[in-house]
Batch of 4 targets.
Target 1
Amino acid sequence: MRERGWSEVCPYPVQGRRPKPRDEGLTMVIDKGLGLRATRDLLEMAADQIDVIKLAFGTPALYPAERLREKVRLIQSYGIPAYPGGTLLEVAVVQGRFQDFLDEAERIGFRKIEVSDGTIPMTPDVRAEIIRLCRERGFEVVSEVGKKHPADRVPSTNLVEQVAADLEAGASHVIIEGRESGKGVVIYHEDGSIDDDELEYIIRHVPDASRLIWEAPLKAQQQDLILRFGPNVNLGNVHPEDVLACEALRVGLRGDTLRAALLRHPERFPFPYVLEREG
């Protein structure tokens, strides 16, 4: 007899979460250097809740070569794409080694590339050409918009224009920069709270917000975005130890989103709350 799972015993309070494989409701995990055992533990526990893993910054260049290939194979054996952080591509571009970068990414087994200019200057034409070349080599491309340093902040009008250009050039999704800290960049104030004006401007001027991935490393940011946009908002830079906690937010298994579900859909829940008795 098949054993029932918790989701059958207690259906999720928030309904409508898309199952994998999915193009909406993505959870992108930021991996800053997990070892093979830790990676395997993460995948065994939470692969169903992870859609993509980013090997952050330029960290892939610091892995022992065989361990990197083994790690990428392990991740992708669970049906989850892995890709190197955009900073590594930026280093290759400023060194004139972009084609070498693609060769190495292909040799390692990556199937996805992040195209960004968070630190270096890059003209729109160069950016579009890089996306095109990645696509020609068979890589799926996700791009990232927004600068990492507050002094280089991109005006909102330019940012949404870049989103449109990247999608037209062939990017599957566009990441809104949030950094590892989630503070003082694009939609976030210095304290990590959301800049409502910036967020609303982006939403109003991007034709298909379902193709945006909001980097949201902090729990309060994940919660706010889920409450605003629902369980199928795309979230990035989720830390490995927070994957299940983030998924719990999405489906109403944490207090704040459970409270919202109770308030929005009281008809789904029997009142007063009475424990069922056996027999």
Target 2
Amino acid sequence: MDFAYSIAGFAVGAIVGLTGVGGGSLMTPLLVLLFGIHPSVAVGTDLLYAAITKAGGTLAHSLKGSVDWAITRRLACGSIPASLLTLWGVHTYAPGGIEGATGVISVALGVALVLTAIAIVFRSRIQALSQRVMGAQPNPARIGALTVLTGAILGVLVSISSVGAGALGVTALFFLYPSLPALRIVGSDIAHAVPLTAVAGMGHWALGTVDWTLLGSLLIGSLPGIWLGSHVSARVPDRVLRPILASTLVLVGAKLITH
């Protein structure tokens, strides 16, 4: 095991615990740009990393009653089939299969990072826009269908870039369910991220793009990092954290797109 990977895992885990977002947004580009890991291996390994770390968050939110399982099921109905179809399509039609899709994965990751940064900065405005667009009493059938569609979009993004299940998922839910308490939106999004990242990660494993030694090294650092970040988060103003994180994501995303 490489100790540098554990340090990276600790740093990303601390940021996730501190801000609630940034797992795939930071870990995958860190592995690609800093450590030179092949993009497909970085994505596949990070997906299983996310599934394991977010499972603990799901348990905590479930015990608090802050998971809306109906919303989680709707998201999963769209995301899991979309994830499997995306992996199959890339493996079947991309030149060289998943290993040969380096350029596609890098660009997709960069675009997803920029979208995540926009979601972080404008989350409150998106929520206000939703209240104007959806109205006070939106149609339940329409919201249900849009939730499944949102899941499908997240499934595609997460499968090829490992980014989107966090900030983008939360922002979409804020738009679709503006009257739902923020804690239940976050809890539902984390709960949905576990099966999505697990299925996508297992798909990458089947395609041979998961590095198990790397995964173990990341987890050794990330688990204490998440614990520390969650305890420090109460002392750091949100207005300071979000612009810093968003700026970092834009810079990294632009680098990947033009790489």
Target 3
Amino acid sequence: MKIEFNKEELSDIEKIKSKYPQVKSAIMDVLWLAQKKFGWISDEVKQYIADLLNLPYSHVHGVASFYTMYFKKPMGKYHLQVCTNVSCMLSGGEDIYAHVSKKLNIGHNEKTEDGKFSLEEVECMGACGGSPMIAINEDYYENVNISKVDELIDSLK
């Protein structure tokens, strides 16, 4: 796959850049667009973004490697994030994570052999009032239990 944004995406990046007084402030938004397009943030993607924004590679790499929201390797079509922080842990988050891990036969930041699912144990996702919670890609599900999580996963197979 060629690492390149199309004209529309480049136009979107120009709009993003116009929101900030310094171009380096646009890195997170541009990395997010890149991840949506390319699936993960490879070294080649970081270099492309550095060149595109006229910034040092080391700066783009620093941002991409600091934030866990940017994938450092290819993940599944459906990326499941299970919160196991305090509120979720107290209401069953760790049990849900263990169940999903066993059900899919994968661990933290691994993906299934068919590439359909990946799993990540995460810290607080800001849904403490609706714990336990799970995210599938960018969809959040609160007040879940093991049977609800099974329904969600089975609906994606």
Target 4
Amino acid sequence: MTTKRSECYKRLCLGDGYSDVARLFYLCGPSGAGKNAVMAEAARLNPALRIAKRTITRPSDPSEQVETLSAAAFSRAVNDGDFLWWWTAHGLSYGIRHAECEGQGCVIVNGSRAYWPDAKRRVPEARLIVLTVDPEVLAGRLTARGRESHAAISERLRRNDRLQSDSLLDQAWLVLDNTRALPEVAQTLVRMLAC
């Protein structure tokens, strides 16, 4: 374990100096559910709310602010202990750098549902927020996004059925239904976070 990784682990997971680390909220839900839109609107409503920038191994979408790395550079960053959390999904790698979670206040992380158990083990204080959406609405959003083929969208919808389990919902600190109007969903989030 590198020194950087060891120090961050001690501070975040063991509580040494935890006052220097933000309150972490791990937002997850299916691709296309509108996580970026909800986070952006919530941050607009409450500028004190911070959105953690993700590091990813694909070009960014206009709806998100990310750091893009090659697969090799991402692997080096993992080995150097640069990430608090990192995971792979759909052949891509995603990470949250330690610096994104430091400082005071509330930070929301756009995370993977499959990675949540590992994320919780690394930072037990993190709170889970699950974003749900009606399956028909989700299918329409994925199609409109235009990123994937019909077959890939069908696979995403099947994966959503598997991952959107009662177990995950039972662990959630907050469940938000993003089938409703975006301002209403964001206002609920801001009210619950009370940052």
